[in-house]
Specification:
single chain, 176 residues, alpha+beta, 2 helices, 6 strands, globular
């Protein structure tokens, strides 16, 4: 008798779940099919433009001083090198932010590198370059490993290159 009661109870639960799953938005299309589409609309995302053109009232696109560039690290850096995409300004509802675009480029680090990590909206802290590599890797693979006062804030870095094209300064750019 107990097995029959369990069977009936299980059947009732399954039937109720089926009824709940069948509930959804009413179908208002003429053919009874879905009207949703996975096709892109051709419009930029709400509030943003990846072309650098302001989609909102961002004003003029920021311009970096000569010799500096923004990059988005594409893979956790290894000792002495990194792979990064050029980052271009993108207008958002809050302001301009940088986002990596295009193919990643391979960069070597100079013998002497000044490395800085962001400690919030303003201050940075000079750290050994190896600590920056570890931080960038953790932000990409294990954010729980990042210790205060640091945080992961977009994976964008402001770099300068020496005469041979090697990274001589690298500073994490803070963004909420």
């Amino acid at each position: 008798m107990k097995s029959a009661q369990r069977f009936i109870s299980s059947f009732a639960v399954v039937a109720m779940l089926g009824a709940v799953a069948a509930c959804g938005p009413e179908d208002t299309s003429a053919d009874g099919g879905s009207t949703a589409s996975a096709q892109p609309s051709g419009k930029p995302p709400a509030g943003g433009s990846s072309s650098g053109e302001p989609a909102n009232d961002c004003g003029e696109s920021p311009t970096l001083p000569a010799g500096r560039k923004m990059v988005e690290i594409a893979a956790p850096p290894s000792k002495g090198s990194m792979s990064a995409k050029d980052a271009r300004p993108t207008c958002t509802p809050n302001d301009w932010i940088y986002q990596g675009q295009g193919e990643a480029k391979y960069y070597l680090f100079a013998q002497e590198v000044k490395a800085e990590l962001s400690a919030g909206p303003g201050p940075t802290k000079t750290v050994p370059v190896g600590e920056l590599w570890t931080h960038a890797g953790d932000c990409m693979t294990n954010q729980a490993a990042v210790k205060s006062p640091y945080s992961c804030s977009g994976n964008i870095y402001d770099i300068t290159l020496d005469g041979e094209g090697n990274v001589k300064t690298i500073k994490e750019v803070w963004h909420p």
